[in-house]
Specification:
Order of helices and strands: HHHHHHHHHHHH
Strand content: under 5%
CATH topology: Leucine-rich Repeat Variant
Helix content: 55-70%
Largest sheet: none
CATH architecture: Alpha Horseshoe
Oligomer: single chain
Number of helices: 12
CATH class: Mainly Alpha
Shape: elongated
CATH superfamily: Leucine-rich Repeat Variant
Number of strands: 0
Structural class: mainly alpha
Distance between the termini: 50 Å
Number of domains: 1
């Protein structure tokens, strides 16, 4: 079984290899470590589980644990929950994603801007694995109130939203999505460089 010392010694470049070597006991222990107060151990436990989830379905059985974290009083736990769910949506044959999508989308109103951004970015992964949810996700994203967040965060959050919508529109599109992107391109929040990149992506997706 992997030890705390071994976890602490892992570098970012070694995370994928370490994740490949995990066994069921390791995974169970790492899930328990997600609740530790030690930020360092908790972070590496999260990274290992995140990378393992990209490779194998054996983290998926802990879905209910991750779901429980969505309503935690601790913002780090909320972030951990939403990101690990996003990585395990690809293994979700039991339609658990559909059952929790509204709880998941509620984190777009989180008090912590970093959690909001992580939620938006993670929705791109949810949308790719669950295209039937694309309409719900798109509708919620285009109704996001940018003016309710700090001005310094608006550009980053708007770019996160557009990046998800660009993925979604490959399989689902609507006049509302097109209008949202068009308004963003003609608005003042994004800089010229960002607008050019989006326009390039739009042309590439045609």
């Amino acid at each position: 079984m992997i030890t705390v010392e071994e976890i602490a010694a892992i570098s970012k470049g070694d995370v994928q290899d370490a994740a490949k070597k995990l066994n069921s006991d390791d995974i169970h222990m790492l899930v328990d470590m997600l609740s530790l107060k030690d930020d360092n151990i908790r972070y590496w436990a999260f990274l290992l589980l995140q990378n393992r989830s990209m490779l194998n379905s054996d983290v998926y059985p802990f879905w209910d644990t991750f779901q429980g974290k969505l309503k935690s009083d601790n913002s780090y736990q909320r972030s951990i929950g939403l990101m690990l769910i996003a990585e395990n949506v690809r293994w979700d044959t039991q339609h658990k994603t559909e059952a929790i999508i509204y709880d998941y989308l509620s984190l777009l109103n989180d008090e912590k801007p970093i959690t909001v951004r992580q939620c938006i970015q993670s929705l791109g992964k949810v949308a790719q694995s669950k295209p039937a949810l694309n309409a719900k996700i798109a509708d919620r994203l285009i109704s996001f109130d940018l003016m309710a967040v700090k001005e310094t965060m608006r550009k980053s959050i708007l770019l996160d939203i557009i990046n998800v919508l660009l993925k979604i529109r490959k399989s689902y599109n609507s006049d509302e999505v097109e209008s949202f992107i068009s308004d963003a391109l003609s608005g003042e929040i994004l800089d010229k460089k960002s607008k050019k990149l989006i326009e390039k992506e739009l042309l590439g997706g045609m």
